[in-house]
Amino acid sequence: MNFQEILKLKQDMVNSHLEELLKIEDAPGDILDAMKYSLLACGKRIRPILAISICEALGGRIEDVLSFACAMEMIHTYSLIHDDLPAMDNDNLRRGKPTNHVVFGEAKAILAGDALLNYAFEVMLSEIAKKGYGEKYVKAAEIVAASSGVKGMIGGQVIDIESENSSMDLKELQDMHRRKTGALIEASALLGCIISGKTERMDLVGEYSRNLGIAFQIVDDILDYEGDSSILGKSIGKDEAEGKSTFVSILGIEKSKEMANKYSENAYDIAKSLDASGFLGELTLYLLNRKN
Ligand code: GRG
Fold first, then answer.
1. Ligand 1 pocket, 153 CB below 6 A?
2. Which of 221, 233, 241, 259 is the most buried (most CB within 10 A)?
3. Does the reported pTM lie above 0.90?
């Protein structure tokens, strides 16, 4: 099987498990519809695929990591729903569809995001309880919690909001994105490593995912500048229109591409020593060259 076929297989596996997990009984009204509307829309599933692929590459079992991996996708999707709200970015297109609040209303979209965040933790905790897993799974859940909290993604969003009317330098921008985008990517990779049992590879996995996270965000900024909204499935050019600092606004488009290449190369080199199958390396290149 080639890379694209394996990627599709993994996306399908994540999608099926998400559907299975979302068979929640006793959810009143249309909250479950609102949760599924965004969660089961066609995202790339990068974070769960990263968790699964690292775990697999280090000799772990997919069935042991799949629920944790899907929990990461729930947290990521919650962040997208909340980020799109009128009080945040006020976007009306996400994953190729009208945003959650456009369809379900603002109050329901807030609750759908909250519900996905809570459910992610319910899924991880019931996995720990069900399988009688030990300390390492608790550690994995702790890393996930920290990555989405004030030290991680929420903290990054706070920096973003507070810097709305001022420009950032490169160091400040990188710090914001290390938290806002990088933290969930790093946590996905680390949880895969922890669940594989090969914790002696944590440092290397951390370094791989931090390089990948920066490259991922630079590419996100490049696509926001010169991508195609109909392929991306979300609106573009808003950061520029609102005068927000991005890698492109600070470095220019060519230097941004050079920087994305540099961090991807770093990640690629580490991927080779983490994953003999080559999938992780190819995933790194796919994320660099993506159009959505
Ligand atoms: C509002 C709690 C809260 C957090 C906001 C992460 C974040 C902070 C907002 C998400 C929106 C955003 C612009 C993030 C930066 C890059 C990024 C994470 C893009 C979307 O991720 P992809 O490309 O999306 O993996 P898909 O749809 O493929 O899953």
1. yes
2. 221
3. yes
